[in-house]
Write a structure and sequence with these properties.
Elements (H helix, E strand, L loop, with lengths): L1 E6 L1 E4 L5 E9 L2 E7 L7 E3 H5 L6 E2 L3 E4 L4 E14 L2 E11 L2 H9 L7 E3 L1 H6 L3 E3 L4 E6 L1
Parallel strand pairs: 4-10, 5-9
Antiparallel strand pairs: 1-12, 2-3, 3-4, 3-8, 5-10, 6-8, 7-8, 8-9, 11-12
């Protein structure tokens, strides 16, 4: 089993908590995503996915009800997603509108995010977050 370590960026939400960001590569672009252990699955920004629709397979937009709201989603397949040295191929994802998240981040002086890495990936690769070293560790065979 190989260990993959990825640097974590800690951002302060005006002393009301913190978010963890990691840099990943999607569509050959480096993007920032939130690392969210409470998210059941990973999602990407709908506008970001739509700009690359010629590169992804997708199904029609649909309504999805979450615990807190009803949102329009888009299902897509990302050909290659890299988190550090971990490369995932044909990754099936859901796209949501993350504009309000980015507006809040912008108002706090934080960078824009293009997605959220959730428990589907974190559980599968036995993720460990080391706050002291500011690293995400993933374990792949």
């Amino acid at each position: 089993m190989r260990t993959i370590n990825v640097p974590i960026i800690l951002i302060n939400l005006q002393d009301d908590g913190f978010h963890l960001l990691v840099e990943i590569v999607v569509f050959r672009q480096k993007i920032l995503v939130v690392l969210d252990t409470g998210a059941s699955r990973s999602v990407f920004d709908m506008a970001f996915i739509k700009t690359h629709l010629s590169e992804v397979e997708y199904s029609e937009e649909s309504q999805a009800t979450t615990l807190f709201s009803t949102a329009t989603t888009l299902q897509a397949v990302i050909p290659k997603l890299k988190i550090g040295r971990l490369a995932l191929t044909d990754y099936e994802t859901v796209a949501l509108d993350l504009e309000s998240v980015n507006q809040t981040y912008g108002s706090l002086g934080h960078p824009e995010i293009k997605g959220i890495i959730g428990s589907d990936i974190l559980l599968k690769y036995d993720a460990v977050i080391n706050y002291k070293k500011m690293k995400l560790y993933l374990y792949a065979e």
